[in-house]
Each structure stands twice: as C-alpha cells, then as structure tokens.
Design goal:
Shape: globular
Strand content: 25-35%
Helix content: 25-40%
Radius of gyration: 26 Å
Structural class: alpha/beta
Number of strands: 13
Order of helices and strands: HEEEHEEHHEHHHEEEHEEEHHHHE
Number of helices: 12
Length: about 375
C-alpha cells in the first residue's frame, strides 16, 4: 500500500514538473528580451529603439533564431518613451538582458543625466551593461543601417567588447561605472564611441562629456594616452622605423605635489614590449641597437601620453581626473582650487619618468 502511494506521489510530481516547465516556456515566450537599446533625442522628444531576437524563448525552434528586429517608443521623457515602447509591443518588454546601450549623438549632446536616472531606477537593469556613443549619428539610424547590412547587432557589439578586453585591462564604460563618474562634476566623463564601417563596428576613441553633455570626440591616440595614464593598457602597437612592437606589460603611477600653489603631476611609467616584425637586415638585438630602440619607443609612448595631457590643458577638461588625486592627498588645500579648477588645469606642470624593456619575440622554429 505504501509502495502504491509512493508511485502515485511520484507520478503527481512528474506531472506538476511538466506543467511548470510548460508554463515557464510560455512565460518566456511572452517576453521580448531587449539585447540592445538605442537612445535618441530630437525635437524635445526621446526615442528608444529596442533590438531583440526573433525565435527567442519557446519559439526558438521556429527557425528565426539569430535574426533581429526592432521596435520603437517615443515620449517627452525616457520613461514615457519606454512606456510607449511597451504599449506598441504585443509581448512584455524587458531590459533585464540588455547588454548594450547606444547613445545617439544628439541625445549625448542634449545630456545623458535623465536617461541614466531612468535606467538606474529599473531594478532589472544589468550593472555590467556597456554604454557606447554613436558618433555623428542617431542610435536609431546606426541600428537601422546595421540591419540593412544584415549584421547581427548584438553579436557585433559582443565582438567590440571582446576587442576592448584585448586592449585594456578593464571596461570603464559599464553602466554602474558611468553612473558613478557622472556624480563628479569636476571631471570629464569618457564613454567609447563607435563608427560603422564595412559592415562592422569600430572603436575609434572616447567621447568626452562635461556635466553630462557631450562636448568632443577624441582620436585613438589621445584616447590611448588616457588609457596609459589610467593604467589600464593591456596591449598597444608601436611602429618604429626598423621594427614593429607591441606593449605586453604596462604600469603607470601618478603622484601629485603642491609647492607654493604650483601643482605638479609626476608620471612614472614602466612598460615592456615584444618585437612583432623586423624590416631591416641589421641585428637589432645587439646592446647598442636595443638601447636605441628603447629610447625611440619611450619617445613614442611619451608623445601619446602628451596628447592626452595637452588636450586636458588646452580644453580645460579634467579627463585625467587630477582633481580626484588632489582631493585625496590635499583635502584642505583642494578648496583653494575648486572654484577655478578649469583654469588651473592649464597651469599644471607634468614631469615624466619612462622606463621600458624590449623582449625578443618568439620565432617559429627557434
């Protein structure tokens, strides 16, 4: 009798599990998980462009997996635009799986504070989602052009993210990091920007924000100089007359000093490179040649770093976050500089100490 009861109980549990599994599949099928969201602003109106995959959830067997489609919502505020997006969709819309937010050029120039505020109040948003700016174009146009080119947008953005990881040791354009950066009005906020070229997305440098508004786009060399000073370089190519090299290790420290009201920033950089190509017949691994090339690569990287430093001084933008270093080390003295900090940026003196080493590269057969 007890055995019969156990069998009946087991069959009931199996039936319940099957029903629950079917219900979960139906619930997932009723949700459009947004993979990429574009944010635009024009004519006093926000436009949100949602990219999601066809054939997700329980319908994945229908043969549409891998294809993408979009929907849009418009409104006077980001929240109103999102509600409009929800109303236009037959299914429930969720940003719980949104890995990328694309900010259109005009929305970036208008200011990203309202968009960030709206997203930060959604308890499902992923803190590690990445933000990018679409240079000189709206995010909606960027997305539509990509679909016309038959690109799979979220996969191409995943490739961009992977490329970031190959170049730097961390991605500072995560949603949570950008939220934290915008809380400090003294420093410039940097968000990578994208351009579309030959059916792919390219990282070209940083977009500079001041008080939450886009003010400029930096070229790749200036952006790389920032990455060296932020101590996040993982790899970087160096092109000299006789050889091509790649930075394999980098360590940078910034130290601030104040003497008689003069701020000095001491930059201490050590890096190591590997030889990637040689286009000369002479032996570059002699002592004299290595010393010559070491001086050349030091000068090469110093020039890259100075591009970032000079931009900060000439444009009065604290893209290097020197104010944070001053406030940390000289909390009381910082009050004397805070009010006129933008003008003081041009008066900061920089001292550089750069050391490097060239390693012999691997050669097949050796």
């Amino acid at each position: 009798m007890n055995r019969l009861k156990l069998i009946i109980l087991f069959l009931c549990l199996c039936l319940l599990w099957g029903c629950s599994n079917d219900m979960n599949r139906r619930e997932i099928d009723e949700i459009n998980f947004i993979h990429v969201m574009g944010i635009d602003y024009s004519s006093n109106e926000y436009t949100l462009t949602a990219v999601y995959s066809l054939g997700q959830g329980a319908d994945s067997e229908k043969g549409d997996a891998g294809k993408e489609e979009i929907s849009q919502g418009k409104g006077a505020t980001p929240y109103e635009a999102f509600q409009n997006l929800i109303l236009k969709n037959k299914k429930t819309v969720s940003i719980a799986n949104t890995g990328y937010f694309l900010i259109g050029d005009r929305a970036a120039r208008h200011g990203i504070d309202r968009c960030l505020d709206f997203l930060s109040r959604d308890e499902t948003v992923k803190m590690e989602s990445l933000l990018f700016v679409t240079k000189d174009t709206d995010a909606a146009d960027f997305i539509n052009q990509s679909l016309e080119n038959q690109q799979v947008i979220h996969e191409d953005l995943e490739a961009v993210e992977q490329k970031q990881r190959e170049l730097v040791t961390r991605n500072d354009n995560t949603f949570v990091n950008i939220i934290n950066e915008t809380e400090n009005n003294m420093t410039g906020v940097l968000i990578p920007y994208l351009v579309s070229e030959n059916n792919t997305f390219l990282l070209q440098g940083y977009a500079v924000f001041y008080r939450n508004e886009l003010v400029d786009y930096l070229d790749m060399e200036t952006s790389s100089g920032i990455n060296f000073l932020k101590d996040i370089i993982r790899a970087f190519p160096i092109y000299l007359d006789d050889v091509g090299l790649s930075v394999t290790r980098s360590k940078c420290k910034l130290k601030t000093d104040i003497y008689e009201s003069q701020i000095t920033v001491k930059v201490n950089l050590e890096f190591e490179t590997a030889v990637k190509e040689i286009f000369t017949n002479k032996n570059i691994f002699t002592g004299d040649e290595l010393e010559r090339l070491t001086h050349m690569q030091n000068a090469y990287i110093l020039d890259i770093i100075k591009k970032a430093v000079n931009y900060s001084a000439q444009n009065k933008q604290d893209i290097l976050q020197i104010s944070r270093l001053i406030k940390t080390r000289y909390a009381k003295k910082w009050r004397d500089y805070e009010e006129n900090w933008s003008d003081i940026l041009a008066e900061i003196q920089y001292e550089y100490e750069i050391k490097s080493k060239i390693s012999k590269s691997f050669i097949l057969g050796n």
